[in-house]
Amino acid sequence: MPPRDANWIDGLRGVASLTVVVGHLCTSFAPWLHSPAPDAKTAPHIMQLPFLRLCVGGRSAVALFFLITGYVNAIGPIGRARAGNTDAAFTGIARSALARSGRLVLPTMIATLFSWFLANTNAYHMTKHVDSTWIRQGWHRQEPTMWMALKTLFRAQIETWTVGWDDYDGTQWTLHLFLEGSMLVYMTMLATILVTPKARMLIFGFLYIYFWQAGEGLAVAALKGLNIMVGMFVAELHNHYKDKATSLLPTPIPVLLILTGMFCAGFPQDGFNNTGWSSVMAKIMRGMTAKDTDIRRYWDSIGASLILIGIFFSRNARRVLTSPIFNFLGRVSFPVYLLHNSLIKSVLTWMIYLPSAMNPPRNEKGEQMDLQRGNWMHMTIAIAVFFYILYRMAALWVQHVDPLCGKVVNTFIKWAVGEPTPVLNGHGGPSTIGNGTVEKASPA
């Protein structure tokens, strides 16, 4: 795997990616964890309690991804603007806007192609018959003809970025929002490059208020806009305080921010009236948001934002996130996100349900019932093997697929902006396309 410097934001991205996977596993096999208690009269399970219930915190992890998008994409332009190098800032925004599209779209297309291949080789066959509702909803049939298979692939590739849904991988619904979020960063930076840092932070505040009141219904606008703005705000803090940020606040304050954020991020997805603490949180948020809005998005965003700000000011938290294990999790976070659903519906499903499929359960009328999962030991071993395969494949993806996508994107950008692009002529020597300048071929 290519070397990459340890970075706390990378480690946080890795944690968010892992949380999404764990959350989907819990949704598959223990969906009751989404409620804070079975009902209003029954004591909660230990894993339903605040903090511990973050094992199903995939929604707050998505909010973290948007925060990271705002932070990472704004930190460079803000630094150049503060240095007075506005020309470099504008140039960087223009090139980043081109590159960001390719670096999101190309890997996603490959992941969709992978899921399409699995579906049309009948690897998802068992998914239709399992006792897990979430896995069963991800089933996709094997198309009867190659023409039909190619048509569904084309539609999935397009609709991922137009309507936000991929028939072959429903977990890709967030990717068009990440692309929109990146463009929101670039547009905001383009409009604020020439203003003072104080004015820019004031603008971030006004935009935060705008997105707060714009989050009606499913509150997708709030999920995207609120977290993007907080991420950009933290990028401004980074460029203002530099290395002094981790020594500004007494140690207990960042810890308190992180813990408060974890509590808020644990707001339940379902049944929040089953416990007092979640009922109070729901009542508070309903008084601060539009009628019938998805208040869960707001608590996810507030919790994730407090976690990010707490980590930003905490030396110890940053040290943990730059450790080798978190550095690895960060490097493979995107392919893990792209591949996990396909592997859950194929590899994990086959490992867990194959014994039942070999002797399918039937009811009194002789009709086949849903396949049943194995015992807890069987499940534990299967999930451990699944994680090994997932992260091994993600590491191989980073080693082989990411460099290829990067070369394609960089070549396109050079062509688009009119820079020389080296190619080999018929004799194996260097040639060019573009402005005619000759570049030597890379030794690689």
Automatic annotation (TrEMBL):
Taxonomic superkingdom: Eukaryota
Record-linked InterPro entries: Acyl_transf_3_dom, Acyltransferase_3
Alphabetized UniProt keyword annotations: Membrane, Transmembrane, Transmembrane helix
Pfam families (UniProt xref): Acyl_transf_3
Keyword NAD included in the entry's annotation: no
Record keyword Transmembrane helix present: yes
Residues that span the membrane, as ranges: 12-31, 51-72, 104-124, 173-195, 207-235, 255-277, 298-314, 334-355, 376-398
Domain Acyltransferase: 7-389
GO terms, molecular function: acyltransferase activity, transferring groups other than amino-acyl groups
PANTHER family assigned: ACETYLTRANSFERASE (PTHR23028), ACYLTRANSFERASE 3 DOMAIN-CONTAINING PROTEIN (PTHR23028:SF128)
Descriptive protein name: Acyltransferase 3 domain-containing protein
Taxonomic classification: Eukaryota, Fungi, Dikarya, Ascomycota, Pezizomycotina
